[in-house]
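Give me the fold.
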Amino acid sequence: MVSRCLVRTPQLAQRSGARLLSTTRAVREEASASPNLGSVQPQKRPIGGFRGGIIGFLFGFSIASAFAAYHLLDEYKLASAALQASVEELQASTEKVSAHVRRIEAVEKDLKALAQSSASKDELSRVRAELKKIYDGLHIEFLDLRSHVWGMQQDLHSLAKKDATTVRV
């Protein structure tokens, strides 16, 4: 490592203008006069397949998770909108059904009131028979009255034919 520093030292000193660690001129010249044997390659540290695999896996997993979360959120919004529309449609149909039920109840109430106030078939037939009896009775009385009036007309006619009739009041 010391030889590496010595080999690079004159070049670094010339570039950076820094002073070398060797203070004597002989040591500096010896360092610059030594033949270049080649540079020593720095030792490469292996990155490691396992460490790279874990980092790649975690990066891919996080990207896939973010993509899945985005699509899941999008699907959730669509499902929520569809559910909201379904709830509104259900509410509208419920209001229609309740309006129909109210109308049916009102009609049933009116029908019940009409059923209580209307006559049944038996009552109607009884009233019809009674009305027929009354009509027949009136007809008989009318005929009796007509015969009585006819009799009076006949009597009046027979009295008018007689010359010697005197009426005393």
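The two ends are 180 Å apart (CA to CA).
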